[in-house]
Structures are given as structure tokens and as C-alpha cells.
Please model this.
Amino acid sequence: MRKTRTRALPVLILTIAFFVGLAYFVFNLSVHSAEWVSMPINGHLSDTDGLENAGMILDRNGVVLAQSENGQRIYHEDYDIRCACLPVVGDNSVNNATAVQTVYRSDLSGYNFVFGLGLPEMFKSGKNITLTIDSSIQKAAYEALGNNKGAAVLFNYQTGEILCMASTPTYDPENKPEDIETNKNYDGAYINRVLSAAYPPGSTFKLVTAAAALENIKDVEKREYDCTGSDVIGGKPVNCFEVNGHVDFKDALMTSCNGYFAHLAVDLGKKEMTSQADSMGFNHTWKIDGIETAKSTYDVAKANENDLAWSGVGQYTVLETPINMAIRSAAIAGGGTAVKPILIKNLSASFGIAAPDRESQKTKAMMDADTAKKLAEFMDYTVDNYYGNGNFCDSFNVCAKTGTAEVSDGGGDAHGWVTGFTTDEDCPLAFAVVVEHGNSGFGAAVPVASAMLNEAANVLRD
Ligand SMILES: [Zn+2]
Model:
């Protein structure tokens, strides 16, 4: 008897451990199974598998961007639309980590908790996903980016709907290039640069420094400065692209005088500059319908005075994603607060429409309402008196700021940037464009913004 009892105890412990483990597994399975099934490590889904009978992906107007027919995944018939939409839609693989076909694969494939993917075809209910993007604006941005590497994003700052999110280089999902891993022209082709790439923002960052100055330095708008093209701050030079001459706040922003804003950054100090950058989306990631973005970074903890000066004009170690830049332009347009961008218009199953899982639709205040109003006026003034509204779009009133960002590693020409928004009530649009090594914000990025805005005017004002 004694012997049996001593054996029964370990058996009992093992039995309890088994049921506890089973319960833990079932709990995790129920919570995470849909996520696990679409993980890249799950070979079962790593190719066309799971997409053979998957739901459709449509643009905002019902244009079918991807669908399954006879076990094959097929994409839009137009080559440029296929390439233009790839960074958003993805291909059959899961290499494009932020693409809808990767992130939403279990919804598309009709994964079911009880039956897994093993449900008979007739009972499978893969959802269709309608995106907020417009495939013709997407195509216009892709064509304007041409052979450059870069990114362009356009969204409605009142509804959050992303109308265009283009990234190059890209490729044809129906005919993936064999040399994609080795050909330099395809560097980063799996990355959606709008969400996942961060670059020095250059002069577009003067909007952040300007906001900090307007909120912390009394009468800063009256501050004047004589620019000779170069100044010495913290014992080292801060150069301008040209001699800006005698400028006040508004004209320093318009002509993009580095000396003026470098002095402001030093006067504001590390704490105020960091606090303003944090409010404007730096050192923080965004989630766009479950798709996580890269972080924009502003870190001056180890900066000396000259570094701090350069940080105020978007150089030093400052990095920003195109999506963050578009969101802060949206906040300027929106009185200090932005509506967060969204990409999924709806997910429709055979049992009706399911709303995507969303947090609050508004960002925290990125700046005071008065500051936003002033920056909007200055950006409007800059377009009217310096860039020319017609260089963007004759159909909209555009407010903008360009940037030409030096590349610190000596890797070629500077990156060209532009960000801004329209003030038209029927088409409230915020945008950001970067052209890698484009050498000039005005020369390289403005034409891409213009292509997006002109096509948006065509399709939204038909
Ligand atoms: Zn200057």
C-alpha cells in the first residue's frame, strides 16, 4: 500500500501539470492562433498557400487589386498599378512585412479557430478587404517617382483615409525579378518606405523648431537676423544653401535660413526641443490599422552646442519617417491635432462588415491651436511667395515646406523632401514625399507631390 501511495503522488502531480499545460496551450491558441498561422515561420503559408482561396483586396472605388481564381493569386491587369500597389498589397510571399497580404493573411484566407485552414472550401469565408487607397493616385505617384528610390503619402486629414502610399523601388508581384536579392536597383524593395524608412528630415524639421519657438520664446516672430550664408555656433560653422540676407521669422522659414533656426534651437535648449519633437511624433511609433511604423528619432542627449544647432534644421542624428511627417502636417492643418491615418476601409465577411480594430482616431495635441494656425499661415505664404502654388496644383490651395537633407555618411546627393496640406474644405489632404538623393526638395520632391495632388483633384472632383 505504502509503495502505491508514493507512486500515486508523482502521477497526480504530472496529471495536474498536464492539464494546466493543456489549458495554457488552448488559451494561447485561442488568443494567438490567427497570428501564428500567418507568421513567416509557418511554412504552410509561406507561398501561395493560404491565398489560393483568399478574399479579394479592393481599392476605395472597388477596383480589384488582388483576387484568387482556380487556386491562383492574380493581381490587377495593369503593370504599373500592380507595381504601384505592391508595397501596400504585397505579393504571395510574406517578405513585405507591412503589406496587407502579410498582416491580414489570416482574415483573407478565412482561417477558423476550430477548423484551422482545414475547413472544406464551401464553408471557407475569407474576408474581402477594401482599402482606402485610390489605385489611380497610387499609380500617378509611382510613375512620378520613376527610377528614384523614395516614398509618397497622401491622406485625408479629416477622415484619416490614406489615398496614396507609394514606395520605390517596387516590382511586379506576378513576375518577381530573379535578381531581386542581388541587384542594387531593388535595394529595400520589400520595404514600404512610407512606414518603415526614416531619413534626415532636413529643413522640413524647421516646422518643429518653429513650433517650439512660437510656444516658448516671447515675440519670436519679431526676431531678425542677418544671414551671410554661414555662421559659427558652438565653435563650428552652420552653413546655409545661400545667403538669405536680412530675415524675420516668416521670411527665415520661407527662404529656409539654417542660421536663423540653428540659433533658435540653441536658445530653446535640449529640453524644449526634445519636448516639442516628442509631441510631434518623434521617439514614438504609429499603428496604422495594426501595421506598426518605424520610429522617428530626435535624441540630443549627447549633442554639443553645434550638434544642437544642426538638430534644429533636421540634421545631426535626426531621422523621420514619411508617415510621421505627413501626420504632423495634418496636425498643423487640423488646429494642432491630427486624425490618425487609416488604410482599411472595411473588412467584409459573408456575415457582414467587420470594423477593423482601432484605437482612438485622434492624436494627442502636437502643438497649441495658435501655433498650428501661425504655421499654416507661414506655409501658405511660403507657397504663394516662394515655391508657387501652380508648381503643386492649380486646383487646390497648398501650404508646404520643402527640405534638402544632407546625408551624413557621405553617401551621395542630399535627400529631397516636401510636406504640406491643402486648405480646400472638400479635399482636405496632407502629404509628405521623399526622394532619396534627389538633391533638392523643390526639384525632386515637389513634382511627385504635384502628380499626387493633380490626380487627387481629377478623381475626387469628377
Ligand atoms: Zn541663412
